[in-house]
Structure formats: structure tokens, C-alpha cells
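Researcher: We're teaching a course module on how sequence relates to structure. For the next exercise, students receive a sequence and then see the predicted structure as C-alpha cells, so they can try to spot secondary structure elements on their own. Here is the exercise chain.
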Amino acid sequence: MIRSLCHRLARPSIFLAALLSVCACSDEQSAPPPELSLREKIAQKIMLDIRYYCADGSPDQAGECRQPVTRLPQDLRRLIADSGLGGVILFADNLENSAQIVRLNDALQSAAADARHGIPLLIAVDQEGGRVTRLPRAESVAFAGNMAIGATHASHGDAFARSTAAAMARQLKLLGFNVNFAPTLDVNSNPDNPVINVRSYSEDPRVVADLGAASVSAFQAENIAATVKHFPGHGDTAVDSHTGLPRVERSLQRARAVDLLPFAEVIARSAPALTMTAHIQYPALDDSTLQTVDGEQIPVPATLSRAILTDLLRGELGYRGVVVTDALDMAGISNYFSPTDAVLHTFAAGADIAVMPIKIRYPQQLRDLQTLIDHVADAVEAGELSLAELDRSVARVRALKRQYVDRAWIERGARDNIRLARQALASPDDAELASALAGAALSPIFPVEPGVLPVVDRATRRIRVIAPSVEVGEAFKLALARVTESEVRVVTPENALAAQAQGHADVLLVASIVPQENAVERGGMDDLAGLRRPRLDTGALYDIYRKALLGARERGSKTVFISMRSPYEAAQFRDIADLQIASYDYKAYIDRDGALHGPIYGALARALTSAEVPPGILPVTVHAAMERAALP
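Model: And here is the predicted structure for the students to work with:
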């Protein structure tokens, strides 16, 4: 208690100066921390989300709690202090602006300081860039994601991987985060992968290794603990582990040559602070089975596999950092195992931190954390879990905190941290970097025929854009208005054919975002029910695109197909679009004044008015999809 009090007093304050001279708050003067109890050790191995909390609600009420935690409720403050919780992960719902983020993270660390042992929290976030971006775009610069960086590798090497990771790390550090669940090292070798896709750097494992190693080094040089994921490799899957349990059918030789290679290389070259597990079955790496909550025997998921997490990752690859699970509430685990069994199995397998094993949304659920800790403690006391292994695991977690928790940030206080964060997030250098990456990444998917470029020139009078959403359409209008005086009309896919029948356009742009957004893009399992349902299925959507492109060509219009997410789909339109471009990104923010903050749209507008071929090199093979996606 005295140590906790001194910690809270050790912030700049004139009237407390005399008290500070009395308190033994420095590392040199303070008494050694108390020995952790068994339950405190287990708590250090748990990371919860505090995405939503309804202090006046009940789990029995209709509907789920959807009240975002932007200020730390007293209930959750006490939970952290009383349990000695090890970590927290925040989502976009928790993050409104820099001042609020700093105050929330400051309150979280203050609650941790009130625990008996006073060990600070790991505060994590998924800030990958591109599709998975949690910081508020109204204030922070957002960067295109991994596949965009992969498209620059041939010309720029690892420059963009390093520079964007360093910029994101500086943003996160000044906001009070110490862990980023990035970068993704999955090799996207399956064109039908719904959850990795453009989150991957490339289909080439050596490119993934080069860019991943650079990213890890840059994050950690800025004192943000990087996390490589999803071990042993989620790239060759066609199922999203948020909704099911994917299975990878590779030989052991192929596993080592593709999926494992980036992890082995990055571990050896950059020593990532954390490695995140994948909720996938990979029989070539572990063909044992595990009994589910329904009594069924299934191939063991990697997250729960000792052969994968201990024998392979630690033993063969020599990994010495912290092993953290992917969210345990995802269907790939929660559909098959109870929260307690999932935690027991993953700890037995060798995981150091269990992420989101339970939800705490209402006061009645607060006791669930202690119940979970008690179950794990019972397993240790019964010899079902090794106490020696648990102690080594806790030592790894505490070593991680000693290295990456920014004590200066904690002691500086919210006011100064808010000022510094605002300055950092407004960096013009970051905005220039985001624009440079967007422009360097734009990739022609197929060779560009002579005479196509520039698509938009002085003779262009009318441009029609088929946009998948109002937001995307408005972003295109604003970006094109900067580079051309041509009339720009935006239509939805449902209205595209009718609009075409009503009038001619000199240029038709088809902007496609397929596959649709999924849970990881929004946040996690809480978002499944709220995902936007496409008004048209993919087949119907592509049929409209084909008819519109063919009709425009018959009228002498130039035609452009822009893959704003997965470039594989462009194979379906190769013969009916003059230009196919991969942008790998579609996110933008339009502020209250109507100004566009979306580097990818500016880059596209410049590319369409340029005689130069876009410079990016496609980091995945699209023609492999041609036979399957052949036009009728």
C-alpha cells in the first residue's frame, strides 16, 4: 500500500515535493516487491478486454452490452487492483481522441499500481495498419497495410516496413501503449483466405521474413513490444477462425518452407517480444487430438498444442520471448472448449498469456475472473499444471514489462502526456510518409496496354464511379476534384446499369471491396452480429461489374477496375477493363469541414491522371485464379 501510494504521489506537483522526499519511491530506495502468490502469478498471465461495460445492466437483459469504456469505471478499477491483472487490450471503441486515450491508459496503470504487488499493466492494441487500425483517424495518421508494403519491396526493400512501424510505435508509445499485436507474418498462399489476405506482406515467405524483421526491429527500437502472428501460420486457410476452426493441409516439408520460414527468420534476426498463436489445426505439426466440451475428439488447435508452442516454437526455433494467444473468445476455440478448459490447455501447451478468455460486461461477471484464476490455481495445486513452468512463464511476462513498460510515461502524468501525444499525432512527416507509401504501393495487376494512360486527361468530361459504399464514393469524388475538372458521378452497384443507360461517361471506374469486412477489421467476436451484410452476393455484384464494364467499352469509354482489398478478384475482369489497379486499402476519413484524409484516394487520383504506370509490384499471384474465375 505504501509503495502504491508513493507511486501515485511521484508525479510533478509542487505541494507534494516535501512528501516525495519522505517516500521511498525510487528503484534504489523502495523495498523489494512482495513475493507473488499463486493466484497473483496466474493473474499476470491473463489479458482482458474492457471494450464494453454496463454498470447498471445485467447479462439477463435483452441485447448485449454495447457501452464503450472510454473512462475506467470503478468496478473495473477495483477488479484490476484486487486481482493483480497482468494486461488489457483496447479496441477502437475505447479510443476516441488522444486526450481521452491518455487518461484511460493513465487510469489503467494507476489501478495496477494499487494492486498488492504494484506491477504495471501490459496495455495492448491491434494497430497493424490498413484493414486493422484502431487509433482514431480524426487525429492520427493511418498507413496502408502489409500487402501495400509488400508491393514496394522490389523497389524500396524494407524502407516502408521500417518507417511506418517506427511512426506507429511513436504514436502508440505517447498514448500509453506498450504492446502492439503486429506485424502479421502469415504467408498468404490461399487466394480464398478471408481473414489474412491483404494483412499479409506477400505470398513469398522470404519477402514476409524481410519485411517482418524490419517491422519488429523498428517497433522495438521505439520501445513498443512487437508481436509476430499467427504462429505457426494462418496463410493457407479458407476459413476465418473468428467463425470456425481452419485446418491447414500441408506436408511438414512444405510447412517449413512456407509458413514457418518467416517466424524462424524473424525470431533469429529481430527477437520479437511476443509471438501470437493461431486458432488453426495443422496436422503436419501436431496430429494429436483433444476432447471438446461435447466429448468429440478433434485435431488439437495450435493455440492448445504443446508440440507446436513448446517443442517447435521454443525448442526447435529457439524462441525465448512471450507466447500470447489470439483471442480465446473466437469461435475457433470457444465453439469447442469452455473458457476454463481453453486456458488450462493453452497454459499446459506453453502459452504465457491468455487473451480474452472471459467477457466482463456487467457487474455480475466481475467474479468470473477470480473463478477462472481459482480453477487454474486448483490445477497447479493438483499437479495438472507445472508450478515450475508457471514460474518461468511469469518470469518471462515480468521481464517483458521491465523492458517495455514506460515508467517515465507513467510518472509524467496525463497532462504532459496529452500535450506530447497531440504533437506526435499531428506530425506532418507521418502524413507525408502515408502518402508516399500509398503512391509507391499502387500496382498494375496486369500489363498496361499502350494508349491507356493517362486514363483521365483534358478531354475527359465525365467520370462515372461504381462505388461499394457512400463513403468510398465520396472519397473518390473529393480526391478526383483535386486533379481534374471533369464531372464525377458516383453510383451504387444496384444503380450502375440504369445510370449507364441514361448517359455516356468518358471513363468508368469500378471500385471493389471483396471480400466484405470481417470481425477482425471491426474488432472481434463482438462485431459478428453487426457486420454490414452485403446487399448483393459476390456473384451478383460481379455480374453487374461485368455488364457495366462491357457496356462502357462498347460506347468507347475507358474502363478501370480497382481492387481496393483483395487483388485476386481482378482476374475476372482482365479482358474487359483497360486498367486493373490494386490499392490494398480503401480506408479514409472525411472531417467536419469536408476535407479528405485518405492517402490511397489521393494516390489513385494522381495515378489516373498520370502517363506513368503505377510503380508497385503485385506481391501475390493473381493469374492463378484465372481458370477458377474465368469469365462466362
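Model: If you want an answer key for the exercise: Residues 44-425 form a domain with the TIM Barrel fold (CATH 3.20.20.300). The CA atoms of residues 4 and 113 lie 5 Å apart.
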